[in-house]
Specification:
Low-confidence stretches: none
Radius of gyration: 26 Å
Number of helices: 20
Strand order of the largest sheet: 3-2-1-4-5-6-7-8
């Protein structure tokens, strides 16, 4: 089914930030838009706000003045809900309350024509539940925009149990015509993004709770090694801990207490204390005027290292070799099991085991484990940990070698899979389970995580780059270390490894 014609009227209910943003997107795409809010004057006020925002774009030379006038002319406030009767698409963006949304949809079903599509911008409620009880539940779908709607590319097109597939495709094509990057997903808790993203927050919160490192260091590793725009602590401070914690609890409850989605007691303490992040002035960080931002911990070494030995394939860390050569380090390469030797130290990419456990099991003295990086050729920082019997001299030699290549080095306690590796492995695992359960395709899940939450790479493509056998081994070792179902590998991951295939094959 093709996209809606631009002559079709789009109605938006709810003139808050999301509703106004959606109305702006539709008007910019050429549709006549009616904006309704049950608060007197709210719709007109929202349109005035859109006009001012567009005016700033004109001042910056990013929008033509005539185009601004045309967009605003297509935006009309509706004084009563009855003014939406002739709309071809109604998108509700009101309070996240199931019964209130259901009542609105019943009202719209009686008011609008039979071929009008009724869409909800809900981020967490079941589309199946919203449509239940309507005479024509097939025309109810989710059209989940991300805030701010005019800037964020992703739109999740959510199909409930009764949703008409042809209408889902119409909304998909319409979102594309509006300049968005839509993905299909079915109505399951969290849809794609709010489900697959849970480990990004959960693993950093767990590392903090276990004393692996402080907030600033963990955030720096996720940015400077992992390539994420923000670490989990600065991001949850920005989102608001009340909001982020509520979403986690909602997904956890919806999945009947599956411990993959277990909320964090550390975050609950912040919510209970009213430390909600930026909006309250304090969260994991202090945002009071004059407050100093803590700096990440770094290891430094004066050891002189001019040569190293690479034994076998370092896997995704192989790009570190060229970096060392470019820094003037003499590199000898020979067969082996994927180790890097410098002085007394033996370096290896983590496989999910504790450093002390791996040193004992593999018979390696002075073992230093390195964390994952998005791109070892360009990363600015790397996390390391070491076995209990690693000497200070060997650790300093390892640090000195990494610093020689231009990397800042941050130390972590001896924890399985360190920080970036465990987070990426868990993101990929959750993405794999979402594919297995028909929530979305491999392509759509990777697109959703890039376009919806600005991940540097889709988690399934990232897992392909690491190597699925290595990801599976990491998860199995994490599960063995903790003895928890939280780290159980997805059946789809196991299947792809058994088949010798990647996710994107």
């Amino acid at each position: 089914m093709p996209a809606l014609n631009t002559s079709a009227t789009v109605a938006v209910i709810g003139a808050g930030a999301m509703g106004a943003g959606i109305a702006q997107v539709a008007a910019q795409a050429g549709h006549p838009v009616r904006l309704y809010d049950n608060r007197a004057g709210a719709a007109a006020q929202a349109i005035d706000g859109i006009d001012r925002q567009l005016g700033r774009l004109v001042e910056k030379g990013k929008l033509d003045a005539e185009a601004r006038s045309s967009i605003v002319a297509r935006l009309q406030p509706a004084e009563a809900i009855e003014a939406l009767a002739d709309a071809s698409l109604v998108i509700e963006a009101i309070v996240e309350n199931l019964e209130i949304k259901r009542a609105l949809l019943r009202q719209l079903e009686a008011l609008c024509s039979a071929d009008c599509i009724l869409a909800s911008n809900t981020s967490s409620l079941s589309i199946t539940s919203l449509a239940a009880g309507l005479q024509h539940p097939g025309r109810v779908l989710g059209m989940h925009f991300f805030n701010p709607a005019p800037l964020m590319a992703l739109v999740e097109i959510v199909a409930g149990l009764a949703s008409d597939p042809a209408l889902a495709q119409c909304l998909y094509e319409t979102a594309k015509a509006w300049g968005k990057q839509p993905v299909h997903t079915k109505s399951t808790p969290g849809f794609i993004v709010n489900r697959v993203a849970r480990p990004f927050y959960a693993e950093s919160l767990r590392l903090l709770q276990e004393g692996a490192a402080d907030c600033a260091t963990l955030d720096a590793l996720m940015r400077d090694a992992g390539g994420f725009r923000m670490g989990a602590f600065e991001l949850t401070d920005l989102i608001g801990h009340d909001v982020n914690y509520a979403v986690t609890c909602s997904v956890f409850d919806a999945y009947y207490g599956d411990f993959r989605f277990q909320p964090s007691l550390t975050q609950k303490e912040l919510v209970d204390a009213g430390r909600l992040g930026r909006k309250s002035g304090r969260g994991f960080y202090d945002y009071a005027e004059g407050a100093e931002r803590p700096q990440p911990a770094e290891l430094n070494s004066d050891a002189q290292v001019n040569a190293c030995v690479i034994e076998g394939d370092l896997g995704i860390a192989r790009h570190l070799v060229q970096r060392l050569k470019a820094a003037g380090v003499a590199v000898t390469e020979r067969d082996g099991s994927g180790l890097l030797r410098v002085g007394d130290a033996v370096l290896a990419l983590s496989d999910g085991r504790l450093a002390s456990q791996r040193a004992r099991e593999d018979g390696l003295r002075n073992l230093v484990l390195i964390d994952l990086a998005l791109d070892f050729a360009k990363a600015g920082r790397l996390g390391i940990t070491w076995a209990a019997d690693t000497t200070a001299t060997a650790r300093d030699q390892a640090v000195a070698l990494l610093q020689r290549s231009g990397l800042k080095v941050s130390g972590l306690a001896d924890i399985p899979a360190l920080a970036v590796l465990r987070t990426v492995a868990m993101l990929a695992n959750e993405g794999a389970d979402a594919v297995l359960q028909g929530v979305g395709s491999v392509t759509d899940i990777d697109l959703a995580m890039r376009a919806g939450v600005n991940y540097p790479q889709g988690p399934l493509a990232w897992a392909d780059a690491i190597g699925l056998p290595a990801v599976l081994k990491t998860l199995e070792n994490l599960q063995a270390s903790y003895g928890e179902e939280r780290y159980r590998p997805s059946l789809l991951l196991r299947r792809r490894v058994a088949e010798g295939r990647n996710f994107h094959d």
